[in-house]
Amino acid sequence: MKQMTIPFCIVLAVLVLSVSCSMSVDPRHLEEPVRNIWTTVIYMAADNDLESAALADFRELEAGIERPDHTVLVLFDGAGCGDTRLYQVHHNNAFTAVDGPVASSELSCPPLGITAGEANEVDMASPVVLGTFLDYAETAFPAEKFSLIVWGYGNGFRSVTADDTSGHTMPLSHFGKALAGRSLDLVGFDTSFGATLEVVYEIKDSTRLIAGFPGMAPSYGWNYTALLNSWNRGAEEFITALESGNGVLIDTQAVNEVYPAFENFCSTLATMIDSETMQELVMNMITMESVRYAGPTVPCDLYLDVCSLALIFDDPALLDVLENSCVASTDNWPGFSVFFTALSGQSVSVLNHPAEYQTDSGAPDRCRFVLETTGWCPSAGYARNGLVDKLFCGKW
């Protein structure tokens, strides 16, 4: 994979200090306030069985935050009712137990109805909550650079967060609408299936960089102490803090070239499938030779590694744009994934793809990738000639 030597997001500034050499109250000799270079907001949706992991990661944030020009805000929602809190993270020299006192400041957020020190509860699966939180952070803590980290349960093209108290999940299309019109510098997914073609396509116009996993994420989350310590030291150090063998950092400007190349790959391969024999051959090559990502138990969704598909079917053009879009990865592999099918058993594909992944099903909340691309996603009844149509219900 092509290596990049430029620092992650570039070292943005140095701290400006003004030394006063006089006791007179001269404005020229007053110390200038530290500029806020970064504001990072963490959307910690732990209203589920991940609460203990979220608390541990919060302690890592307190241990790692040291830069005075980097503001970190956490909207935390645990498994109980009335436990939503908004924090500005402050450094804690002692790494305390997850149930011990915090060093961070609890904040009020009137637009969300959150009052510091009181019982609050918001639906973390609501795009209105996410959008309002981003608006508040951008207004109350302006900075030169702005990043969002989504923490919790991610489910690829289906949803981005889950909230057990409300019983809701946030569809990927709703997440995209919450980010529409924004110009973020980084969106990170400390979730599973954050580095998929579907997720990246949904938000590629709203952020400069995307960090995440093409498959399952570790339940303990990123190493936030290492993450904050390496924030401006380089892309390779940053991606190492994800602590997983398949973490990837994606350049969304370069990724615009991936989608037409993938469309061409799909249409070319679909044209080759002109008989049952070819259908079986291509299906066997995909299911037996490609890198695959799936959940730990069935039923679950099966995702395919796009880079491995390009290698199997010898598409150097697709491979080249994948490498160009990958700034860094934990295993030196430009790991995008794309949904293939659902699994009802260890190796058995469910024939019927969900309606929200069919191009013409009319189902609500279909993501942009399903609505706007043509070469991969199946049609209702597998009636068209896309690649997945040909593989699952070929007509010749």
| Strand order, sheet with most strands | 4-3-2-1-5-8-9-10-13
Fraction of residues in H or I helices: 25-40%
- For the secondary structure, the number of strands is 14
SS class = alpha/beta
What kind of sheet is the major sheet? 9 strands, mixed
Radius of gyration over C-alpha positions, nearest whole angstrom: 23 Å
Portion of residues in beta strands equals 15-25%
User: Which H/E pattern describes the elements?
Assistant: EHEEEHEEEHEHEHHEHHHEEHHEEHH
Distance linking N and C termini: 38 Å
Averaging pLDDT over every residue, what do you get? 88
**Molecular shape:** elongated
Instruction: List the total number of helices.
Output: 13
Low-confidence stretches: 1-31
Describe this structure in words.
With 396 residues, this protein is an alpha/beta fold. It is built from 13 helices and 14 strands. It has helices at residues 51-64, 127-140, 172-179, 197-203, 224-229, 235-240, 252-255, 258-272, 276-289, 306-312, 316-325, 368-372, 387-393, and strands spanning 38-45, 70-77, 85-88, 105-107, 145-151, 159-163, 168-171, 186-190, 209-212, 248-251, 292-294, 300-305, 326-329, 337-343. The strands form 3 sheets. Strands 4-3-2-1-5-8-9-10-13 form a 9-stranded mixed beta sheet, with helices on both faces. A 3-stranded antiparallel beta sheet has the order 11-12-14. Strands 6-7 form a two-stranded antiparallel sheet. Helix 8 packs antiparallel against helix 11. The two termini are 38 Å apart.
